[in-house]
Design brief:
alpha/beta, six-stranded parallel β-sheet, 324 residues
Length: 324
């Protein structure tokens, strides 16, 4: 059995010695950031800590069923004092979007490649399939038993960040943690249904519109989706409804990568997904973005047809580079 990393013990000691703790994560939170924050927050409250969770953006409606989601505060600036700040899922501090975190004792827990190790204490483990794997181990080290609510939060985090157990970095550790989660009495099928079978009719209409207008490039190996505000209005939905749609084209055998262009008016957000060894993270990094090998993203501040073409050409090159 692998021995725990030394930084885990130091983080445990720092949290046990703290009275007040702030938890936060990245802008535009996803299932992993939300589930990890909520589960760790619940564990620390069991230990008698004063805990607040503050994020820059609200959670997508998709995750409204998560236990204690309403405890997350939304703000752009932190002025109150805390003994320590735990930043989850952020490769750099500015990914939080929050002002006022500088010069505070920070615990940085992350699994993304390229973490710049900005914390007073840093636990960076790229082998973890989700930040929730690290949070689960931290909760164990703190000696706090999992409640069904915490188990639900952690399971949603792992389920969504692995693309329903399809992305890279899934290891025996992943399933060992999920086994422990299942012993709390939660029903993984019911939780998955809340995530994947609880969308709006608007989302269904939008999915049809996107797939009908989908382009196929690079010998049908790159699927291109494009979204703008007019399409959202026509479908009768909100930006929250697009969560997960980017993965759908990967169901086709020929498609090796998906590029999803989302025109926000001021900028173009681009989500990238891929299969197997196709590394879309390197494409995102080349434009100042980041993520994982099979799931990454970037923002283009001044989009043009030339930058669109450049993104597509680099994704195509990533597919070619992955071929034996």
């Amino acid at each position: 059995m692998t021995s725990p990393p030394p930084e885990l013990g130091r983080i445990r000691d720092a949290l046990l010695g703290a009275r007040s703790v702030l938890l936060t994560s990245h802008e535009r939170p996803d299932g992993d950031s939300l589930g990890s924050q909520l589960a760790l927050g619940a564990a620390l409250r069991q230990l008698g800590k004063q805990v607040r969770i503050i994020d820059y953006d609200p959670a997508p409606d998709l995750y409204a069923f998560l236990p204690d989601l309403g405890t997350i505060e939304i703000a752009d600036n932190v002025t109150d004092r805390f003994d320590t700040v735990v930043v989850l899922e952020c490769s750099s501090l500015d990914r939080t979007g929050l002002r006022g975190l500088d010069e505070r004792p920070i615990i940085n827990i992350d699994h993304h490649p390229g973490n710049v190790m900005y914390g007073t204490l840093n636990w960076h483990d790229e082998s973890a399939c989700a930040c929730a794997e690290l949070v689960s181990e931290l909760i164990d080290t703190l000696g706090v038993p999992l409640t069904p609510a915490m188990a639900t939060q952690l399971y949603v985090a792992i389920l969504t960040d692995t693309g329903s157990f399809r992305h890279a970095n899934i290891t025996p550790r992943t399933f060992t943690i999920c086994q422990k989660i299942a012993t709390t009495g939660i029903n993984p099928t019911d939780v998955a249904s809340q995530v994947y079978n609880n969308g709006s009719l608007g989302r269904l209409r939008l999915t049809g519109m996107l797939l009908e207008r989908m382009q196929l490039e690079h010998g049908h190996r790159v699927a291109v989706l494009r979204l703008n505000d007019a399409m959202l209005a026509e479908a009768g939905c909100t930006p929250d409804d697009i969560e997960g749609i980017v993965n759908i084209p990967l169901a086709a055998r020929d498609v090796q990568a998906v590029v999803f262009f989302k025109d926000t008016g001021a900028a173009m957000r681009v989500s990238l997904r891929s299969k197997g060894s196709v590394d879309v993270r390197q494409v995102a990094v080349s434009f100042g973005g980041g993520g994982h090998r099979n799931a990454a993203g970037l923002t283009i501040e001044h989009p043009s047809s030339e930058t669109d073409s450049l993104v597509l050409s680099r994704v195509a090159a990533a597919i070619t580079d992955s071929e034996p």
